[in-house]
Write a structure and sequence with these properties.
heterodimer; A: mainly alpha; ABC transporter involved in vitamin B12 uptake, BtuC; two-stranded antiparallel ribbon; 14 helices; 4 strands; B: alpha/beta; Rossmann fold; 7-stranded mixed beta sheet; 6-stranded mixed beta sheet; 40% helix
Chain lengths: 352, 418
């Protein structure tokens, strides 16, 4: 399996890592050119930055979910379709805490607001991330581990099955309605100078996502477990021969990926103030697209992919025809993959 | 060959089953049973408008009890899949109704998109359909844009060339413009942003709103459509609408297509005192939940039927209904319109029985009698149905979200001739 990845890297890669940066460069230039067109001037720089802010916020959530897809794919080459639903589960679980007596106990009720919510909210993040992580470990143990040496399609189908199962459980639990998620975040706009502003809500989402991503990158690069994960991703058999506990390492990957998805779920709830049992599937699809776009198995790639898709969403909705937004995203995906089959940062594989 | 033989066996078995059913019924002193079906989305997110509508139709059947010696029975169907109305499910329901010879007509469907799929199937049976709430104009009237936007025309929906479809609601050529007039004249809005959910209903009502609002002298900005197969992110579009100077938003959508999600997301972009307008599809409880902290009295929805509460002769029936359904959520905008649909159907079945010398009428005979409905005194109005299946004098109402929920603030009678 590791050899399969290497073959992909070795033979199908016509461009160097530098050209990965080139593609990003081209995208940046395109955005810059776009920013200078007459339609932008029409709305003004303020408008451009506001739109960018919304794109970054949406992209940050995509990125958090994309990390889970890319880490799991990197280590066992499985597209964990249940991941998007673990993300929704994060939103559902945190909502259940807030609306239960437990929420009042830690100082969070649907009507809480102000600076007083910061600490309880932090606690909510920790508990929810832990819950999602444990659920994901259980999913791995039940549905993926027994099939680790089975044909590729078998775990793919159990993943789709797990996704349907989680959606079904949430559907039965809360019904198929849109659920109102409490609004704890401030509503004001933060000035950026020159009349440009960004919503405080967007800043919150972006900051939390970036902090989590930096912590993750440090963890993967510096810690012993992170090293074990990288080794397992590169060559599972060799890693095992070196004394690495493969099962524990894979469980850790599922744990971390789901913790990020759980955090993403809370952020999603706080940002959109509504959540529905089926939201995660579609969101997961975009996040998965982001992971492939950035180079599946590559952590910075997933983050960049998430942000790029979020920005394209916002720019298309803000300047063009909304009906074209989703086709546009996939047109860009096709364009990038044709020239870079491994995604934007597909070369930097050791970091999976 | 094997399949053909199987089909023959099945057909024979079905005929035998029907024949037996007929003979057992004929044995009783009663003339037999006539069933009235309904097809509405009664589970999940759509249930907040579908269930109260079903209760209205059921109540009418229960009140009548029997017609000309035939016992009446109400058989409800649910066309929601995963909480959302589904045309394919609706079609399957209609096929089930057709296979039950006691069903002489159906009340429904609730959604125009479902009607577009069901009418051709029911048309070939033929089975009478009478909807309390379908408002898409292309279901009954030919416009040059129908094939392009709705995906059907009056004739493509009726393969037999005869009409089997009726409704009591005012179509979208009225509902959109009624809100446009209200927004411009009463609310004094000059610039409104319009979006639609890319469904026949949402798109139609949004286009008709925009056309009338511009005709009045208002400006429509940020006119966009959203793919609502999953929940969209409206932030960038809302910001665009705000930048273009919109004082309010018109949503050509329903609660099931995230009609009021933009209201919640507009927080921090739009002032809470900005207006949020929409068709009957957002005039329900789900919309108010979805609006979050932005749910307030600056939200207005039109309804394609008049308010039964303003009709004094309806008061006793409404009181009886409310005694049976004390929960406020069991009465919605189309509850009494559905009651009227079922009542028109029962009345027509009665006349069809007379026309058939007191015997069980054929489905075509029922359809013929519905088409002759004239000056029928219903709870929501007096109905005369024209050849296309539309009421000749449709009525509408505008509702405002007040502390007690959606409240009628204006009844509007429209004259299609004008």
């Amino acid at each position: 399996m590791a050899t399969a990845v290497q073959r992909l890297r070795g033979t199908f890669l016509p461009l160097s890592f530098n050209s990965g940066l080139n593609v990003i460069g081209i995208l940046v230039v395109l955005v810059a050119l776009f920013a200078s067109t007459q339609r932008v001037i029409e709305g003004g720089g303020t408008y451009f930055f506001q739109t960018l802010g919304f794109g970054l916020a949406q992209g940050a959530i995509f990125a958090l979910v994309a990390l889970g897809y890319t880490m799991v794919y990197g280590i066992i080459e499985l597209i964990n379709f249940a991941h998007g639903d673990v993300f929704t589960l994060g939103a559902f679980f945190s909502l259940a805490i807030i609306t239960s007596p437990l929420g009042a106990l830690i100082g969070l009720t649907p009507s809480s607001s102000g600076a007083g919510v910061i600490l309880p909210l932090l606690g909510l993040f920790v508990v929810t991330m832990l819950f999602c992580a444990l659920v994901n470990i259980a999913i791995e143990r039940v549905a993926y581990r027994p099939l680790r040496h089975a044909p590729r399609l078998a775990p793919l189908i159990t993943a789709i099955g797990m996704s349907a199962l989680l959606e079904g459980i949430m559907n039965v639990w809360k019904g198929p309605y849109n659920l109102a998620y409490p609004d704890f975040l401030p509503e004001n706009q933060i000035p950026l100078g020159g009349g440009a502003t960004i919503a405080a809500k967007s800043v919150f989402v972006i900051v939390i996502a970036v902090v989590l991503m930096v912590v993750l990158t440090l963890f993967i690069n510096r810690s012993k477990l992170g090293k074990a994960m990288r080794a397992t991703a590169q060559d599972r058999d060799a890693a095992q021969l070196m004394g690495i506990d493969i099962n524990r390492t894979i469980s850790a990957t599922f744990f971390i990926g789901a913790a990020l998805a759980g955090a993403g779920g809370i952020i999603y709830g706080l940002y959109y103030n509504s959540v529905q049992a089926f939201d995660g599937f579609q969101y997961g699809l975009y996040a998965f697209t982001a992971a492939v776009f950035g180079g599946i198995g590559n952590i910075p790639g997933a983050a960049i992919g998430g942000f790029v898709i979020g920005i394209v969403f916002a720019m298309s909705d803000g300047y063009f025809t909304t009906k074209w937004t989703i086709p546009l995203i996939f047109a860009i995906l096709i364009f990038v993959l044709v020239f870079r089959p491994t995604g934007l940062l597909g070369m930097r594989v050791p970091e999976k | 060959m094997v399949r053909a033989r199987g089909l023959v066996v099945l057909t024979v078995a079905t005929l035998v089953a029907f024949a037996c059913g007929g003979s057992t019924n004929g044995g009783s002193s009663n003339k037999g049973e006539i069933d009235i079906a309904s097809d509405l989305p009664t589970s999940g997110a759509d249930a907040s408008s579908g269930l109260p509508t079903q209760y209205g139709a059921a109540f009418a059947v229960e009140q009548a009890g029997s017609v000309k010696g035939f016992t009446l029975k109400f058989i409800p169907f649910d066309d929601a899949v995963n909480g959302k109305h589904d045309p394919t499910k609706g079609t399957q329901n209609v096929q089930q109704m057709i296979s039950n010879p006691k069903i002489l007509g159906m009340v429904g469907p609730f959604n125009s998109g479902v009607a577009g799929a069901e009418i051709p199937v029911a048309n070939q049976a033929p089975l009478a359909m009478i909807s309390p709430s379908n408002t898409n104009e292309c279901l009954t009237i030919n416009f040059d844009y129908c094939q392009k936007y709705a995906g059907y025309t009056v004739s493509s929906l009726r393969p037999t060339g005869k009409n089997n479809y009726f409704r009591v609601a005012a179509n979208d050529t009225f509902q959109g413009p009624a809100m446009a007039d209200f927004a411009f004249d009463t609310l004094g809005l000059k610039t409104v942003a319009v979006w639609d959910d890319q469904e026949p209903f949402g798109l139609g009502v949004a286009n008709n709103f925009a056309k009338e609002f511009q005709k009045k002298g208002g400006t429509v900005v940020a006119r966009q459509g959203f793919d609502t197969s999953s929940k969209p992110d409206f932030h960038s579009w809302l910001n665009r609408a705000k930048a273009a100077g919109a004082q309010g938003i018109y949503a050509g959508a329903t609660s099931a297509s995230y009609g009021c999600i933009p209201r919640a997301q507009s927080q921090g972009i739009f002032d809470p005192n900005s207006y949020y307008l929409g068709p009957d599809g957002i005039g329900d409880g789900q919309c108010l939940k979805d609006s979050g902290s932005m749910a307030n009295d600056h939200m207005y929805a039109s309804q394609g039927v008049a308010d039964a509460g303003s009709n004094s002769s309806a008061a006793s029936t409404i009181a009886k209904y409310k005694a049976e359904h004390p929960n406020a959520a069991d009465t919605a905008a189309y509850t009494f319109a559905a009651y009227d649909c079922a009542a028109i159907l029962i009345d027509s079945i009665g006349r069809a029985i007379d026309a058939n010398n007191g015997n069980m009428p054929s489905r075509q005979q029922v359809i013929d009698q519905i088409a002759k409905t004239s000056n029928f005194q219903g709870l929501t109005g007096t109905y005369t149905l024209n050849a296309a299946g539309d009421p000749t004098t449709p009525a509408l109402q505008i509702q405002q979200n007040k502390s007690s929920g959606w409240t009628t603030i204006k009844n509007i009678a429209v004259n299609p001739g004008s």
